[in-house]
Amino acid sequence: MKVIQFILCLGLWIELSAQSKSLVEIPSTIRKGIIYKTEWSVDMALHTNGFYLGYNRAKIKNYHTSTYIHGDLGFLYHPKETRSTKPNNSGFKSFNAYKFGKQNQLINLRIGRGLIKTLSEKARNKGIALGLRLEGGVNLGLLKPNYLKISDEQDGRFTIKDIKYSDNPTDFLDPNHILGASNFFKGIGEVSLVPGLFARAAIRLDPGAFEKMVRCLEAGIQWDVYSKRPAILANHSNPFSYLNLYLNLQLGKRTN
Quick one: CA dihedral 242, 84, 96, 175, positive or negative? Predict the structure, then answer.
């Protein structure tokens, strides 16, 4: 009987020791991956033809994988756009700089889903985790007419009026008549929709991959394609799609 009791006690001790050892050997990064279940973050990105600000809401599935929903709002410029032309400041009037031939502003509202894969671990208090980010979805391109201030002569009197390209294409593209850009919000009620799709792929450098605060740098490629050619410039051909390189700073927080 004493032998049986001894064997049972020995087995229990071995089992408890094994459990204790397994807990000690679990890397701190993996324990953190289990503790944090959700994540929110904001994107502040520059690309070769514009910029965007975005928001992400993620679900942390395991140590290596997160899925998320994404939304961003930003501007996309035509590659042929020139720098702002110096306005015609004369008399007591001062005018804003403008871009010659700029027919419309293209504002992108992107909504989609994405995947983040962590490809390497980092030490608990130092090092950088390497990851991959893939996302795609719907791109709602918003075309807002661009207005210019034009000098107009009527009955020997000069007046100033705001016009868009379709009002008077000749004057809109005549530097001798252009005084400067109109207020940006002029024409905001005339926005038209150019739907499309977008996709992104990026490499992530994340020094806080398993910590409470999200902070990482991303570099990647972005592709926007539209159902028709967005009329950005009146004096150049406008493509159906735009391929850009981008750099993004992501900041946020992880929660249980």
Answer: negative
